């Protein structure tokens, strides 16, 4: 019987750690189903990454992936809720379609990721420029810095975005 | 998000970034525009770099600015670290695992105890008092040598006070004013315009910040703001049921019931005016609000429309 050699190491990891991972998650989430979902996703991520840890590094690696999944899920929920709150008051006719909602939420998630990569002042300048439409002179006034400082902040913001979009 | 054609020289990326930065300050003037077009045409790599930055602009344009402003408010780096830290802490009972509120106005970022949407919690305080928090609440605890003070930042709490061996006064503070408790079990709910109090046992003294206060006896309730005190009335017997994961309706208009239920689930729950006054009676467990909605569909002539998990409307059936 032929054995798929790529699946065996993952199989071993799964047998060694999956129950432990679910318990670890269940203690933190208090919810068996949610813990099972995340545990499953963790192994999928591991498979997709193509980089399997050794059996004894396994737990630390799995926990790292699980933590990232939880944070991403938390981020997505937070953004979804905040977005739905923001359109809740709109009259029926102006309410965005479910398809539009899904696209906007994806865009918000991406932008959130980009913003998280920026230091606070850079992020502030970027938000004021892109979402409040302020000129650099106005931003300089608001942040009490020089216009050339604002230009430097914006360059750093663009560099941070480029790194995430094209270098990771 | 790779265009599959390999990295671009950093110097060129810098140049492209410089043009983008300039264009974001109210656009390029005629002279800048001319020089930009010359730069872009000078080398295919310049164009490739510019295309990549154009995609960034596309992502930013995918969200209407006012939505972005509301949703992407200041995101302190602290939130991410806090999320990591909280993942190591046991969850408070109830809810499905989301530990933080949707948004964190600055004052609530400093809360000592907090519940997310759909979470309820029970805590034993250092003096033996029992504090329960309803969905979406935040409190600060300030127990000192001279007093036991609980600051309700938002949401709703149920306090079962314990006698203090050191005889320190027990105070609950809200935006509207202070409440002093004497051997009590009571609920305080923070509302936008004031605070609502229901007293189930013991005595309370209400002290609005800017006007005369009042004493409440067991079985009484009251609403007050900083400068106004409503008439003392009978306490709502069901106002503490959330602490036992229940929502009770007794010929309660459906619309009003849904407003309360909505506190316990993320997203939007709407009610068609045509069915909002249908009277509802029953005891509904809060652990699974989707089940509650299904139960409503069975017992009333209504239909639950789910556009997404977070966008639910109750319509005539």
Task: Please give a structural write-up.
The complex is a heterodimer of chains A (168) and B (317). In chain A, 77% of the residues lie in helices and 0% in strands. Chain A is built from 7 helices and no strands. Chain B contains 7 helices and 18 strands. In chain B, the strands form 3 sheets. In chain B, strands 1, 2, 3, 4, 5, 6, 7, 8, 9, 10, 11, 12 and 13 form a 13-stranded mixed β-sheet that branches. Chain B has a 3-stranded mixed β-sheet with strand order 15-18-17. A two-stranded antiparallel ribbon of chain B has the order 14-16. The longest helix of chain B is centred in the first third of the chain and has 18 residues, at 44-61. Residues 74-109 of chain B have low confidence and may be disordered. At the A-B interface, helix 1, helix 3, helix 4, helix 5 and helix 7 of A face helix 1, helix 3, helix 4 and helix 5 of B.
Which stretches of chain B of 5+ consecutive residues score pLDDT under 50?
A: 74-109
* Rg of chain A, Cα atoms, Å: 22 Å
**Proportion of residues in β-strands of chain B:** 25-35%
**On the 0-100 scale, what is the average pLDDT of chain B?**
82
Helix run count of chain A = 7
Strand content of chain A: under 5%
DSSP helix fraction of chain A: over 70%
Sequence stretches where pLDDT stays below 50 over 5 or more residues of chain A:
1-6
How far apart lie the N and C ends of chain B? Answer: 46 Å
Report the structural category of chain A: mainly alpha
Question: What general outline of chain A do the C-alpha atoms trace?
Answer: extended
Query: Number of helical runs of chain B?
Result: 7
């Amino acid at each position: 019987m032929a054995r798929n050699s790529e699946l065996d190491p993952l199989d071993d990891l799964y047998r060694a750690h999956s129950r432990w991972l679910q318990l670890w998650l269940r203690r933190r989430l208090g919810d068996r189903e949610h813990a099972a979902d995340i545990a499953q996703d963790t192994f999928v991520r591991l498979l997709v990454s193509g980089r399997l840890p050794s059996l004894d590094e396994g737990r630390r690696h799995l926990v790292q992936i699980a933590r990232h999944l939880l944070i991403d899920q938390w981020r997505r929920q937070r953004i979804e809720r905040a977005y739905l709150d923001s359109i809740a008051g709109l009259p029926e006719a102006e309410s965005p379609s479910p398809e539009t909602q899904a696209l906007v939420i994806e865009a918000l998630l991406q932008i959130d990721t980009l913003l998280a990569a920026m230091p606070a002042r850079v992020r502030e300048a970027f938000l004021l420029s892109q979402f409040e439409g302020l000129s650099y002179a106005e931003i300089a006034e608001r942040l009490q810095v020089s216009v050339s400082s604002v230009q430097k902040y914006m360059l750093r913001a663009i560099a941070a975005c480029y790194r995430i979009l094209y270098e990771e | 998000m790779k265009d599959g054609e390999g990295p671009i020289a950093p110097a060129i990326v810098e140049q492209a970034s410089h043009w983008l930065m300039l264009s974001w300050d109210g656009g390029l003037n005629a002279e800048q525009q001319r020089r930009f077009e010359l730069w872009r045409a000078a080398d295919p790599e310049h164009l490739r770099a510019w295309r990549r930055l154009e995609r960034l602009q596309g992502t930013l344009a995918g969200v209407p600015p006012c939505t972005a402003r509301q949703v992407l408010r200041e995101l302190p780096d602290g939130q991410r670290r806090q999320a990591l830290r909280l993942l190591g802490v046991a969850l408070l009972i109830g809810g499905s695992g989301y530990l933080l509120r949707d948004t964190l106005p600055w004052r609530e970022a400093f809360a000592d105890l907090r519940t997310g949407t759909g979470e309820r919690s029970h805590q034993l305080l250092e003096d033996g008092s029992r504090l329960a928090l309803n969905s979406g609440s935040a409190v600060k605890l300030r127990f000192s040598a001279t007093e036991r003070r609980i600051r309700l930042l938002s949401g709703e709490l149920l306090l079962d006070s314990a006698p203090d061996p050191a005889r320190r006064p027990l105070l609950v503070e809200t935006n509207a004013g202070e409440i002093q408790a004497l051997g009590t079990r009571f609920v305080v709910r923070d509302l936008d315009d004031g605070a609502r109090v229901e007293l189930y046992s013991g005595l309370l003294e209400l002290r609005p910040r800017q006007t005369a206060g009042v004493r409440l006896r067991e079985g009484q309730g009251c609403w007050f703001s900083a400068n106004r005190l409503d008439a003392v009335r009978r306490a709502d017997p069901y106002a503490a049921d959330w602490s036992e994961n229940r929502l009770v309706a007794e010929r309660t208009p459906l619309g009003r019931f849904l407003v309360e239920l909505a506190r316990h689930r993320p997203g939007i729950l709407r009610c068609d005016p045509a069915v909002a006054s249908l009277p509802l009676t029953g005891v509904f467990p809060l652990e699974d609000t989707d089940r509650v909605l299904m139960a409503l569909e069975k017992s009333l002539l209504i239909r639950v429309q789910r556009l997404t998990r977070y966008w639910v409307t109750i319509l005539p059936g």
